[in-house]
Design goal:
The structure holds 2 protein chains of 2 kinds.
Chain A (H helix, E strand, L loop, with lengths): L3 E10 L6 E11 L4 E5 L6 H8 L7 E6 L2 E2 L5 H11 E4 L11 H11 L4 H14 L15 H14 L4 E5 L7 H18 L2 E5 L3 H6 L2 E6 L2 E7 L8
Chain B lengths: L1 H9 L3 H41 L2 E4 L16 H9 L4 E15 L4 E9 L4 H4 L6 E4 L9 E5 H7 L6 E7 L5 E12 L4 H6 E5 H8 L7 E6 L5 H11 L4 E4 H4 L1 H39 L1 H9 L4 H37 L1 E2 L4 H5 L6 E2 L5 H27 L3 H6 L2
Parallel strand pairs in B: 3-8, 5-7
Antiparallel strand pairs in B: 1-9, 1-10, 2-3, 2-6, 2-9, 4-7, 5-8, 6-7, 11-12
Helix pairs in contact in B: 1-12, 2-10, 2-12, 10-14, 12-14
The chains are: A alpha/beta, B alpha+beta.
């Protein structure tokens, strides 16, 4: 069963003077363990699609099923819990809580899930070690580099044990070395732990590493291509 | 974790949190200090009146009025006095004769309240003798000694040992003229009181009127002033043939002053807290709007609006309650210190004296006021969190993430 199933999704924004059709009849599905990039120029509907599969927005018509749950039929309150337990988010600007340490940022998600302190401690330490920041665990985001902050954001996204991680332009604010390091990390997590990653990106480095690339144009899927996988060395 | 998060959030903008915190502390401190002065003044007025001559409870004949004094004598006064003296709640008891009289000197004359005292017992009940600024008390060796208020002495041109002629109606309707000698001059906190009173020995008046055992007023001083109301009620039943009145009933305006001061303090503190409420709300709202994107992220990753509201509430409570505790403690300490050492208002002594207030003012705050204040501060903190908290919970994660 696919993790994400998008069926004939249409999204029309009626806010302005003229209704804007952001998505028209988009359908695709994502299987567990995929490393998928959604690409397209500005205004292609990338962000709208990402919001919809992230459970942050509802389509005008069509159906979205995530982990067997029809998210289009879930009420807003339950949707928050759904996001907490099923989706991991990585944002362009890292968006860590500045007053919490790296460890506390990761732990916070599990606190919202009401997990025990022992479980929280074990998993936060495990994840921060996995993203190579064990020695920076008790440091606040302001004392970390952009690349390090984004790695903490990856650890935070994985803390809830989600069905997949949704990464919106994760490398946009990073220098090339940090971007490559982050992608290496995500590849390793995908390879070793079968973690599903869905990217929305313009970055050719991300696109080059993706196993599958969905290109959007004018709210429709222009192409859906499987790419040859390189061997992950780490 | 929420507490930790809230606490650290408050330190994000130290200057902003510091300013509103200081405003709250200073506001509460000054409010409490001003209230302490206000309540100290009314307390001084009440205490001075009780100590000076009023006592806690007085007994008269039910038909007793200020206009028709002489015939309104308390029957069997001796037994009533003995009965009251035997009660454990009673500190001291004395009796008085009250007569409307005209006091005349060689210079001029004026209408006065002539009071005949038990010169020994009176000292146990009132502080009249302690207000002597010149001369001696009625236990002086002089024949027919009289004590006059400073203002009256000035008006009549009286000095120590000056002759004072007192005229009043006797029991048979005839006018009694009597010569007294000024033994002492007193000055209380009330200049009006000092201008209208003359005190002589009760027994001198009894001789002059030809009746050797009559009294108009019995004055009781209690061990504990808090018992005033309950004892007034109990004694009204016990002494059914007499009118039993506490100082609150005797001088209702004094009770009103005391009550009003308490109410004024609540209103005063309410206004201060109301103003602070807007300050705290503004600070928290700014803090929420600044973190709009952050809250959007938190809601996107799974934080419920109720939790977000809880976070804002905790932040506001920490800010307002810590300031509340500091401001209140600081205010109470100041009130306590000036309650012990007093504030010297000698510069305004004349003005204060006309209201019966001492020139040395001792600030005070009743303990139950502190609880009311605590409740007011907590309410202010909670109310000021509502709008910013509500604002935070209304945000839509999609819009908040894209903001900035």
């Amino acid at each position: 069963m696919p993790i994400i199933s998008v069926e004939s999704v249409t999204k029309i924004y009626n806010g302005g003077a003229v209704p804007v059709q952001a998505l028209s009849g988009v359908s695709f599905s994502v299987e567990k363990g995929e490393f998928l990039s959604i690409v397209g120029p500005s205004g292609s509907g990338k962000t709208t699609l990402l919001n919809i599969i992230g459970g942050l927005d509802q389509p005008t018509s069509g159906n979205v099923v995530i982990s067997g749950v029809e998210v289009t039929k879930v009420n807003p309150g339950e949707l928050i819990d759904f996001r907490l337990n099923h989706i991991g988010f990585v944002f362009q600007a890292y968006n860590l809580i500045p007053v919490l340490t790296a460890y506390e940022n990761v732990e916070f998600i599990m606190l919202l899930q009401k997990r025990s302190s022992k479980e929280r401690k074990e998993r936060a330490e495990f994840l921060l070690e996995a993203v190579g920041l064990k020695d920076k665990m008790h440091v606040r985001p302001s004392q970390l580099s952009g690349g390090q902050q984004q790695r903490v954001a990856v650890a935070r996204a994985l803390a809830s044990n989600p069905a997949y991680v949704l990464a919106d332009e994760p490398t946009a604010n990073l220098d090339s070395v940090s971007a490559e390091q982050l992608l290496d990390l995500m590849e390793v997590l995908n390879h070793q732990h079968d973690t599903t990653f869905v990217f929305s990106t313009h970055d050719h480095r991300v696109i080059a590493r993706a196993h599958r690339v969905i290109t959007l144009r004018d709210g429709r899927i222009e192409s859906d291509v499987l790419q040859e996988q390189k061997e992950v060395t780490k | 974790m929420m507490l930790k998060l809230a606490w650290r959030n408050l330190w994000r903008n130290k200057k902003r949190s510091g300013i509103i915190w200081t405003a709250m502390v200073v506001g509460l401190w000054s409010g409490l200090f001003a209230s302490g002065i206000m309540l100290g003044m009314s307390d001084s007025m009440v205490r001075n009146a009780i100590d000076r001559d009023l006592g806690h409870v007085q007994f008269h004949l039910p038909s007793f009025t200020e206009d028709e004094l002489l015939t309104q004598t308390i029957p069997d006064a001796h037994n009533v006095l003995e009965n009251l003296r035997s009660k454990k709640e009673v500190a001291s008891v004395t009796d008085r004769i009250l007569i409307d009289a005209i006091a005349a000197s060689s210079k001029t004359s004026g209408v006065v309240k002539l009071t005949g005292l038990d010169e020994i017992r009176e000292k146990e009940v009132s502080t009249l003798d302690r207000h002597l600024i010149n001369g001696n008390w009625l236990d002086d060796d002089l024949k027919s000694p009289a004590i006059v208020g400073k203002k009256l002495a000035e008006k009549l041109g009286l000095k120590l040992k000056s002759k004072l002629i007192l005229s009043f109606q006797g029991f048979d309707g005839s006018v009694v003229y009597a010569n007294f000698k000024v033994a002492g001059i007193i000055q209380t906190q009330s200049s009006v009181f000092d201008e209208t009173h003359v005190w002589v020995r009760g027994n001198d008046l009894r001789k002059l009127t030809g009746r050797d055992d009559f009294t108009h007023e019995i004055v009781v001083k209690l061990n504990k002033s808090e018992q005033t109301d309950s004892l007034e009620k109990a004694w009204t039943g016990e002494f059914a043939n007499l009118k039993v009145q506490s100082w609150k009933t005797l001088v209702p305006e004094l009770k009103l002053t005391a009550d009003l001061s308490g109410m004024m303090m609540s209103i005063f503190m309410g206004i201060i807290l109301f103003a602070l409420l807007f300050g705290v709300t503004n600070t928290m709202l700014m803090s929420v709007l600044e973190r709009y994107r952050e809250f959007g992220i938190l809601m996107a990753v799974g934080m419920k609006p109720a939790r977000l509201f809880q976070l804002i509430l905790i932040e506001t409570l920490i800010l307002a309650l810590s300031a509340g505790v500091f401001g209140t403690a600081f205010g109470l300490l100041t009130v306590h210190w000036f309650g012990l050492h007093g504030i010297n208002l000698a510069l305004f002594a004349d003005g204060l004296a006309s209201f019966g207030i001492s020139s040395k003012l001792y600030t005070t705050i009743p303990p139950d006021m502190v609880w009311i204040l605590a409740l007011m501060i907590i309410s202010t903190a909670i109310i000021s969190a509502i709008y910013p908290g509500w604002k935070a919970t209304r945000l839509k994660p999609v819009e908040a993430i894209r903001s900035l």
